[in-house]
Amino acid sequence: MKEKVWRSKWSVFFSILIVLLPFAQFFVDGLTAIALTNNGESNIQQLFDNEYGKASLSYQTKENKIIWQMNVDKKAAEKATRFLFSLKDKKNKSILPTLSEENQATDLFTVISKETEKDYAAVFEREPSNTNKNYKIEFSTPLVSALTFKVAFDAASDQTNEQKTLFTKEYPISIKENDRTQASTEETMTSATKESNDASSTEISSTSEESTSEVKNLGDADEATVDSAKKEAEKKYDETGVPQKITRSAAVSSKSLKTKTYANIPPVYINENGTYPKSYWETIKNGNVRNHPGNIDGSSNWRENGSNKYNSFIEYGGTGDNSDFAISKYAEETSQGLFDVYLNIRGNVQKEITPIDIMLVVDWSGSMNENNRLGEVKSGISQFINTLDNSGISDKINIGYVGYSSPGYLNKTIDLQSFNKVKQQIKEFTPTKSSGGTFTEKALRDAQNQLEKENPEHKKIIVLLTDGVPTFSYNPIKVNEIKNAQNTSLDGEKYFATQVDSTKTIGRGNTSSLYGYGAWGENYPKAILGNTGRIVDVENSFVSTIGQAIQIKEKNTEIHALGIQLQSDSGARLSYDDVQDRMEQIATKSDSGVLYYETANKASEIANYLSNKAVQIISTVSGGKVRDPIGDQFNYVDSSLEINSVGKTPTSEINYSDPVDKVISINNLNLGKGQEIQIHYKVRMNTEDENFVPSKWYPINGKTTFAPNQELPDNIVDFGVPSAKAPGVDLSLKKNWVEFDGNPSDRKNLYFSVGRKTKNSQGNDIGYVKLSGNNNKQVWERANISQISSTADDSSYKETIWLPKFNNSGEDFNYFFSKEINSPENYVPKDISENGDGTEWENVKEFKKLKIQITKIDADNKEIIDKEASFKLSGGDLKGPISFAYNGKGMYTLPDDVLLDKGQTYFLTEISAPEGYQKLAAPLEIKIAEDGAITISENLGFTVKDNNLVFNVPNKPKVPLPATGGSGVWLIYGAGITALIVGVGYYFLRNKSKGEA
Prior knowledge:
Blueprint: H1 2-31, E1 43-50, E2 53-62, E3 65-74, E4 82-89, E5 98-99, H2 105-108, E6 109-111, E7 123-125, E8 133-142, E9 146-156, E10 163-174, H3 180-183, E11 187-188, E12 202-203, E13 214-217, H4 223-240, E14 244-247, E15 269-271, E16 275-277, E17 281-282, E18 289-291, E19 314-316, E20 325-335, E21 338-346, E22 356-363, H5 373-389, E23 397-404, E24 412-418, H6 419-427, H7 440-451, E25 459-466, E26 473-481, E27 495-506, E28 526-529, E29 534-537, H8 542-554, E30 557-564, H9 576-586, E31 597-600, H10 605-618, E32 621-629, E33 634-636, E34 642-645, E35 663-671, E36 676-685, E37 698-699, E38 705-707, E39 717-718, E40 723-724, E41 731-738, E42 750-757, E43 764-771, E44 779-785, E45 787-789, E46 799-802, E47 814-820, E48 827-831, E49 840-845, E50 851-858, E51 870-875, E52 882-883, E53 885-888, E54 891-893, E55 904-912, E56 924-928, E57 934-936, E58 943-945, E59 948-955, H11 968-996
Helix pairs in contact: 5-6, 5-10, 7-8, 8-9
């Protein structure tokens, strides 16, 4: 019994296993990172996508090695991080990668190649960074069957400065020999066949079988692309009822070239007295400009040779003539403060281009005779052919020509053929005269039929040239709303035809209006709107023409269109703008929003368009864009912008205009093999800006970027931005103090207004300078004044305004000190500088009439003589002698109304001396000069205080008796003793003489 149960269980198990086996393969496919084949096919795997960034990995086998390519988008972070990766085989042994030099991987990353080192074979980002980075890393390894790919981000620790791992992840990868991408990834969407309601009607595709499924080849697309294609197919089936088939084969997508991206090579700058390139070269003239050196960033050789400016390119996709494109930017100072800025961009032909099939569709209607439009078309086609012929890839180009007008008139076709076989025939195909109407819908269909004949893997392009509205179309049967159209502008017609009766041509020949082509010749033809069953009017031929264009675009054929001197269509009640909108709906609008439509307002612009279009189709710089913001410290010189062709092969004319909001934008650049342009303009240093700092390095521009392909507007690379500086000046200021009274106590800190002017302008004040000093010195001065203040107040005074040498026009500034704004009371300031620039001033204390106050002192002991004397003052402007009043304590003053004036000489006479003192032998002379300087005879010192001339008058005692206890007493004693001795001696001598007698 148990045995039967187990048999039953095993039967169920094997039944389930058999059911699940088909899904096992799918499950295994989901686990395998990338399946590699041995035929050189490339496969892409998305890696991480987190807060540190995201990355994808692709690789292919080639002989005995694997060629890898990793695209890394590193996100900005607060702290500098470093990206690294490594590979190990099945035995956990490190695999040493070899970095490619073609895309500068060796400049941005380094490999630890010594086996003795800890991180042997790991690949590190050379410089940690905290800004957004985009890297394209190419490298190779020996061929192995399986390996583990490890990625990581690390950062320096705050404490130890050692590298700390922030994120790491490993990816097991199997390298298989068989091609699994073709064997198991085909996905098909089908549905029941729709039957046509009208045997004579056809889909726009010109096939009468609506049930035929359309195949979309995704090549090596990733899962996101496949999912997107599924959704598009579902949407298209809902709209058209045509089954859609999606395959993922090994074929290369026709759009693969447009997806080529370039890892930015970010220029390196340092912040030291401003910002300038870490490595730089200088123009020979004056060293005021530092330029980025291009690919040899890090070398110092550039500083020795300014002529290298012509080679300072940053190259992408190779070097020299083999680079996909190269960019350069440098500047030089041509006159004081005036800088010429140059941006050079060099293009090339696409080196690994998918073969291209091109059909020229040219309007041969009667209106093309006007303004020699046909002649310009013929000339333009000749240039178009010559450009392709000189590209070096003409063997990969097929080309044909549809010339069209209307039924019954000249309509001719050159079938799609090898370029080299048919190039001369196409040059000569355009007629000299034309006639008829404009049946654009049929011409587009004929061109697409040529493109669909063969080579489904080729890129398909239609170039349409027309000067007017379509005046004929097929009769529409079904329409859809324009919002459901792919790769089409939404402005213009509301509907586009999805089904027409190709056996019935309608149109009036001179307008797009279809009025009168309704039932019984009335009103407009009718059509069914989608699956609604609602009937709508089809008012003009644009509806079917745009419908044909949309069907072509859905088959991945690009339509590039030129509207030549278009006009309004009054018969269809369409304005000029209405016509333009509908012409734009015919052209392709790419997934990235690029509209392949242009307008020629002059017939002469046709040739330029065709020449430019040829370059755009085959070149590495296709619809490129430059964004060049003028630096904050610089002003653009009006009308100085120009663009010149400087390569071996001339470029077509490039449209440009002066910058808007200080940003130069150059669009639709197409540069191929041997072509190079130079964008040139002038800027001036904004030295008059309040934030200007002399000798500081200012970037001449903001971040200057270049997007080489209009289909990838976010894939931008950076130009190296030059930096420039401008000098400033230093001022000096001197103040001489002149004080008649010799009293400096009234001095204070001074403020001077600073002004400037040029040779051709009047001066104006711009700030203030403070001057202070020591009162013991008669001269205050400052030198090397490089900054001034915006205020003249002690509480807010701060010297922040620099002094540039010249103004925004390069004219030298002449600086001057215009006035002293806070002179001390009773001082008069005066500019005594030689050239009147106020660099030297004199402050003279203002003289006021003086009172006089004298004090009597003892000439010997300097003590005050508190005994009354009498004095009189005479001379000068006095009417007569005036007596002093005694105020006690030796002080004498004049009446309040008696004042001494400058320019006068007065005499002080002592009438009577204090008791016991000798009177002055002569009057004292008091002389006051015109400048207020005072001198008093006998060199008597004086002071002026509170407007009083104050000095002391000494008197000598009459009899100089010795003072008690003084040394004079001993002299008296000595004299007395001497006299006594002499007298006694004389007495004895006399008596002796008498006795002898």
